[in-house]
Design goal:
Layout (H helix, E strand, L loop, with lengths): L6 E2 L1 H8 L4 E4 L2 H6 L4 H15 L3 E8 L2 E4 L3 H9 L4 E3 L4 H6 L4 E3 L1 H11 L3 E3 L10 H4 L4 H6 L5 E4 L8 H10 L4 E4 L18 E3 L2 H13 L6 E4 L10 H18 L6 H12 L3 H30 L2
Parallel strand pairs: 1-4, 2-3, 2-7, 5-6, 7-8, 8-11, 9-10, 9-11
Antiparallel strand pairs: 3-4, 3-6
Helix pairs in contact: 3-4, 3-13, 10-13, 11-12
């Protein structure tokens, strides 16, 4: 069976054809992660950071049932203001296409579409993981299983701090996904630079990470890589502050019976309210920081592929 190919913007298609550096970006941060106009400003800002560091951004989304890789300013603006837009994981894409829906793509969907488009590196904020209480609910993000089957490298600030980090790291090990921390031994926890857990590996330059990616793919493992990039120190929140805020938000979600797809957007919105906007500022800064590292990795990775090694 021939695999579907998403529609690429002209710039993205030309860059891929020339073997140039491209960084994929998800769109749920636009459709479900932030209010307007902060979502549009962040999307444009993240794309600008990628360009400043030598790569081409490729925001991925579903527009009226069409799989799209690379959006122009007008399309980003329309997506940022859209009211009837769904959130699509990898499993939801086919139905969104049939129903001609517009959708923000999650980490798992973005990884899948990036791979189909021939993009090796993807920058996001945080990756989904094993939810607290998963031993009862079995609530484990599809992001983790997609990392175990799709070779895209995902640059993130660790996993969202609303999750069970220890179980998430165990699950990634089971999925054979290497977890590489950038410039630190510690695995970051989204809003904070340290989670209390160690990453599998530490590498200190984008070039080292790109080489590890290159060799990982040459080994034919078939899995992605998680690149854990700590939030900049100036933007980080204190563990005491964010842990207390998260506990309050989780308790409220339990009381209201909120779960499944609605849980993460609810928690992030409520955490932003409880933190008086501090978590949103931190979120924006960490996404830009991840985009910067991803772009530098993409430049180095493109050079390795062209070298013929």
């Amino acid at each position: 069976m021939t695999l579907l190919k998403p529609k690429l913007s002209r710039e993205v298609a030309e860059t891929i054809a020339a073997g140039g550096p491209v960084v994929a970006l998800e769109s749920t941060i636009i459709t479900h992660g932030m209010p307007y106009p902060a979502n549009l400003e962040t999307a444009l800002g993240v794309e600008a950071v990628i360009r400043e560091n030598g790569a081409v951004p490729a925001t991925i989304a579903v527009i009226d049932g069409e799989l799209r890789v690379g959006l122009v300013h007008r399309e980003l603006d329309e997506l940022a203001q859209a009211k009837r837009v769904v959130k699509a994981s990898g499993r939801d894409l086919a139905v969104a296409m049939v129903k001609k829906q517009s959708a923000g793509t999650t980490v798992s969907a973005t990884m899948l579409l990036a791979d189909l488009a021939g993009i090796d590196i993807f920058a996001t904020g945080g990756v989904g993981g094993v939810h607290r209480g998963a031993e009862q609910t079995f609530d484990i993000s599809a992001d983790l299983t997609e990392l175990g089957r799709t070779k895209t490298a995902v640059v993130c600030a660790g996993v969202k701090s609303i999750l069970d980090i220890a179980k998430t790291l165990e699950y990634l090990e089971t999925q054979r996904v290497p977890v590489i921390a950038y410039g630190t031994e510690d695995f970051p926890a989204f809003f904070t630079r340290k989670s209390g857990y160690k990453a599998d590996h530490r590498l200190d330059t984008p070039e080292e990470i790109a080489e590890a990616m290159f060799l990982h793919h040459k080994l034919g493992t078939g899995t992605g890589l998680m690149i854990a990039n700590p939030i900049p120190e100036a933007a980080a929140l204190t563990p005491e502050f964010i842990d207390g805020t998260i506990a309050d938000a989780v308790r409220e979600a339990d009381e209201k019976g909120i779960g499944r797809k609605e849980l993460t957007p609810f928690l992030l919105a409520r955490i932003n309210e409880l933190s008086r906007g501090e978590s949103l500022k931190a979120n924006i800064e960490l996404v830009k920081n991840n985009a910067r590292l991803a772009a530098r990795m993409a430049v180095a990775y493109a050079a390795l592929k062209k070298s013929g090694r």
